[in-house]
Amino acid sequence: MHVGDSQAPASRTVWHPMHHAQAPLPTLRDRGKVSASFPGLAMSLSFVTAVSVYTNGTVFATDTDVTFMAVTKETGPLEFAWYFGEDAPVRTTSRSIRRRLAAPGRYCVVVQASGAKGSVASEPRYIWAQARVVPSRLVSTSSALVNTTVAFQCRINFGTDVAFLWDFGDGTTGLGNSSASHIYSREGELTVQVLAFNHVSSASLQKQLFVVRTPCQPPPVTSLGPRKVQVWRSEPVTLGVAFEAAILCDISRGLSYTWSLRNSAGLGVALPPAVSTHRQTLAIPGYFLEPGNYTALAKVGRGPTMPRAQAASHFPPAPSKRSVPGTADTQPRLRFFKSTVRLGAGKGT
Q: Which residues form the PKD domain (predicted)?
């Protein structure tokens, strides 16, 4: 490179390609090699002031448009050639350009400004593109024994450069990989959570785990009635729980049942004091509920540490005053676990 003065017979300019060493981003893994050499990219510092690349960050999501700006004190008209890694240069007369970096990885961005006085190239600006985290599910057994290793796996559908923060539900937390293991020293019902995250997104998954001293599996449940039932407001409704296979737990002390009811807004509905919510069946008296949508939830377990099964039942409103198969003027005996009950406003309401 030659910087001329007034006594030089003619201005000489040396052109040469740009080569720059890569600088990794802390805490991020390098995903793929991106060349920092741009053949044919030349610069002259004889006439044009320096130019640099500006962005409002260094890490972006692959579904986001990134705005790049060429910053220079040169006021005259300029043409800009943008180099994004190994891609062909993009030429524009605007000092900014929007580009979506669809492929995850690291990009070396250089801009060359050219004008009547000459050309100059910027120093490379390194940025990273990451795919957002889309979780799938948290995989583990539903129950585990005390002082036995429990394996967990966090599965994701999408995401790059993902880190995982585990919370095993007993006060133990820590960073790890998509797979983790833990040993529990006490019985109880615990909630295991994992946060999967990178620089552009995060998502969490959780799973209930029952830690017991003797082997135990959740009681399998089944529906013994139609999934959708329509009744009038004046009619009582009985919901029940049934089991389709043997319960693989010590139930010598019996099973526990817990029912709850919510309206269409998701708010809890208090049942009358005379209605027991801790039996195998739930009897809802006539005229108690107003017409509308309701959801009943039943949980089955054995004491505080037995794995429980649960499911929801829905109560949509009746469209008209007509009888529906499976219901009668007398109290129907509907023995099922998963069901939908339609509550109408007919019959003397």
A: 77-122, 159-211
Q: Report residue 268 as tokens.
A: 């809890």
Residue type for 40, please? G
Partnered with residue 23 across adjacent β-strands are none
Domains of the chain, each with CATH number or no CATH = 1-130 (2.60.40.10), 134-212 (2.60.40.10), 221-344 (2.60.40)
Write the CB contacts of 71 (distance below 8 Å, at least 6 apart in sequence): 51, 52, 53, 54, 95
Judge contact between 109 and 80, C-beta under 8 A. Answer: no
Query: Cβ-count burial of 27 within 10 angstroms (0-12 exposed, 13-18 middle, 19+ buried)?
Result: exposed
Confidence class for position 270, pLDDT limits 50, 70, 90 = very high
The span from the CA of 188 to the CA of 210, in Å, is: 6
Whole-angstrom Cα distance, residue 282 to residue 287?
16
In the numeric block, which tokens belong to residue 223? Answer: 């529906």
What is the C-alpha to C-alpha distance for residues 279 and 88, in angstroms, rounded to an integer? 71
Q: Are 93 and 78 in contact (CB under 8 A)?
A: yes
- The two tokens of residue 161 are 């450069």
pLDDT at residue 175, as a whole number? 97
pTM of the model: 0.58
Residue that has been written with the tokens 């399998």 in this structure: 220
300 vs 281: CA distance, rounded Å: 11
